[in-house]
Automatic annotation (TrEMBL):
<dbReference type="GO" id="GO:0006955">
    <property type="term" value="P:immune response"/>
</dbReference>
<dbReference type="InterPro" id="IPR051713">
    <property type="entry name" value="T-cell_Activation_Regulation"/>
</dbReference>
<keyword id="KW-0393">Immunoglobulin domain</keyword>
<feature type="transmembrane region" description="Helical">
    <location>
        <begin position="159"/>
        <end position="179"/>
    </location>
</feature>
<dbReference type="InterPro" id="IPR013783">
    <property type="entry name" value="Ig-like_fold"/>
</dbReference>
<dbReference type="GO" id="GO:0007166">
    <property type="term" value="P:cell surface receptor signaling pathway"/>
</dbReference>
<dbReference type="InterPro" id="IPR013106">
    <property type="entry name" value="Ig_V-set"/>
</dbReference>
<dbReference type="GO" id="GO:0071222">
    <property type="term" value="P:cellular response to lipopolysaccharide"/>
</dbReference>
<dbReference type="Pfam" id="PF07686">
    <property type="entry name" value="V-set"/>
</dbReference>
<keyword id="KW-1003">Cell membrane</keyword>
<keyword id="KW-0675">Receptor</keyword>
<dbReference type="GO" id="GO:0009897">
    <property type="term" value="C:external side of plasma membrane"/>
</dbReference>
<keyword id="KW-1133">Transmembrane helix</keyword>
<protein>
    <recommendedName>
        <fullName>Immunoglobulin V-set domain-containing protein</fullName>
    </recommendedName>
</protein>
<keyword id="KW-0472">Membrane</keyword>
<dbReference type="GO" id="GO:0031295">
    <property type="term" value="P:T cell costimulation"/>
</dbReference>
<keyword id="KW-0732">Signal</keyword>
Length: 203
């Protein structure tokens, strides 16, 4: 009985001492110009020293193997980061203290696609895990069709102008007719004769 208890304690100590790194998601799908968060988790102890933490995250492609994120003895090493990721990667410091590597990658590009491997080393051990990211090209959105423009009805001001011009034209014509009637001798004589005939007929 005592042997069994000692064996169980020994096995528990061995299992609890295993250092592991695991991705929270093995595959990611995103579109160009969007943002994404890659995450790994590693075994940590409350009494572990941050100066013993070393992280090396890298992208593996057919062309090259750029460095995404690097921590040496608990301190980030930004100069190790490849130009491809310059200014586009931010790490969550609070999550790192809890044993989580959270890397926010912004403005994704199609050449960010590939296999991401994060290797973590501490006083407790060394381990790594990987995930795959596929970035597709952004789909061009069709421009919305503009509605057909209908001819605008004439404004009230324009209609008023037309009415005013028409009335002015009629007034001019009437004035010309009166002028001809009053100042044309033939027309005036004919009118006087017609008036005298009417007076004779009345008598």
């Amino acid at each position: 009985m005592i042997c069994r208890i000692l064996l169980l304690i020994s096995l528990t100590s061995c299992v609890s001492g295993i250092f592991e790194v695991n991705v929270t998601q093995t595959s990611y799908q995103a579109e160009e110009n969007h943002n994404i968060t890659l995450e790994w988790m590693f075994t940590t102890r409350p009494d572990s020293s941050s100066t013993s933490l070393n992280i090396y995250c890298q992208l593996f492609t057919d062309q090259n193997d750029p460095v995404l994120y690097h921590v040496h003895k608990g301190v980030e090493v930004p100069e190790s980061q490849d130009e491809q990721f310059a200014g586009r990667v931010q790490s969550d410091k609070d999550a790192l203290r809890e044993g989580r590597i959270r890397l926010h990658v912004s403005r994704l590009r199609t050449n960010d696609s590939g296999l991401y491997v994060c290797d973590v080393k501490t006083d407790d051990g060394d381990s790594s895990d990987r995930c795959h990211l596929n970035v597709t090209a952004a789909v061009d959105q069709p421009e919305p069709q503009k509605p057909t423009e209908r001819p605008q009805p004439e404004s009230r001001d324009r209609i008023g102008l037309y009415v005013g011009l028409t009335a002015a034209g009629l007034a001019v014509c009437a004035g010309l007719f009166v002028f001809r009637l009053c100042y044309n001798p033939d027309v005036r004589e004919h009118a006087e004769e017609h008036e005298l005939e009417n007076m004779d007929a009345a008598e």
